[in-house]
Amino acid sequence: MTGELPEPPMCGPRRVRLVKCVVSLWLAYHVAGIVVAAASVPPSSDLVRSSWKLFGPYLQFFNLNNGFHFFGPDPGPSTLVAFTAERADGTSVTGRIPDRAIVPRLLYHRYFMLTEALASMQEANPEVFQFHVRALARQLCRRCGAKAVSLSRLTHNLPGMDWCRALLPLDDPTMYEEQPIGAFQWSDS
Amino acid sequence: MVGFLTSQTSRLKTALGEGVRRWDHFWFAPQSPIALCWLRILSGCMLIYTHVIWGLDFDAFFGPTGFQDPLLVRTLQKESAAQSFWWLVPDAMQWPVHLGCIAILVLYTAGFLTRVTSILAAVITISYAHRAPLANFGLDQVNSFLVVYLALAPCGKTWSIDRLWERWRLARSAVRSGRAPVFVAAAPVASARVVTRLLQIQVCVVYLFASLGKLKGEAWWDGNAIWMAIANQEYQSADLTWLCHFPWLINLLTHFTVAWELTFAALVWRPRWRPLVLAAGILMHLGIGAFLGMWTFGLAMILSYLSFAPPEACAAIESAVAKRFLAGTRVITCGPGWIGRQ
User: Fold this and answer.
1) What is the distance in angstroms between the Cα of A36 and the nearest Cα belonging to chain B?
2) With an 8 Å Cβ cutoff, are A158 and B231 in contact?
3) Where are chain A's structural domains?
4) What is the pTM of this model?
5) Is the pLDDT of residue B337 over 70?
């Protein structure tokens, strides 16, 4: 059986109007903020960058300060980190981050984002890049039980369609560019 | 002159009044919270999964000597308002706190003390994202806006343990007083409308700026961007490089992706276009999941489409479920704005 309840007991119209006014102001601020956050990805105008000061802290606090530039401006080559860790007994361990054997996929993606962040930091924020590299080296030494580790940045270039039409593999060694990052001792990590 | 001014003032007042009325209807017209409750359950499952996966290598990502040690993250966030409760957790307590967080996310998903657990879920999600910013990607952005907006909504009003508890108390009271049990359907409320609109606008902003970002690049104009995505071995989870024999198809998919993202914010508001636009989005995200390995991100975006589900259809489904499983119980629908109990 279906019935209708009587009209709800509402708070007074003046109070409702006041609440709606306050909420409306917040909504206008919030929506403007998420638009400015996305629009402030470089290149952006002075106006947008100035507006960011108004919204930035609020959006950062709620982790809503995102640009949403997925695969933009262009899907680029991947960045990996190759490492050689040397143990005290003279043996060594080599590997790459991210390792495609990592499962589940979400965990693999976390590692992938670490190395992608490394690439973006190298140019954008050298101080953070240095800290990032040291943290990577220390964690790899711990994980491998090593006393020293050397790191290289690997850029995996994207092949053109002709490359695949010729049945050449995506992981052909010529597709990688290696750039040494440095050698780290466990004691200074 | 006076007559002209009077008429213009009158027209302005009318236009302003109409604008206020439309604003009020757009943001505050009471709406059923059912879709938001479904979204709580589905996005809550995604949150649980996301945080369980963090736990598979917890020390590496959150430990004091992990990939993102405090010095690194603090330096990265030194001019940011990003906060995380992880800065307050002693090293020895990290694992118990992590397990506690997952337990809270389970309670939130099940709709237990939802008013409290929804806020805690938002705090947890944001804190993890801010503690491990270098390992974040689109999934964390979508998780964040879903859980933050849902914390503002009555997302435990139905399909929740809170609701079951309330029904049990009402049924017990009815039986004791010799009346038939009553099922009160979730009432339309203004807060559900506000949160639904925020979600809808957020999704539009995501796609609009995703497309504008793409338009800054050359590959999205020359038609090769999709090739560059599928030829990226680190993303690849299924091999689509055989598409190199069909460059026209790659061009078509590239142009379609940009056109769809660019027009999403305009077309999704039109009832006739909405199913088509959302269906295309679902296909695109399933494709990203299947071929680029980002199932979690793709599914999270698809979940956000629930904000575009017609409230009447959601209410009809709930009503049908109630009638199916609550035979012999009176089903009562509530008028707009009803926020009290029966």
Assistant:
1) 10
2) yes
3) 13-61, 78-188
4) 0.92
5) no
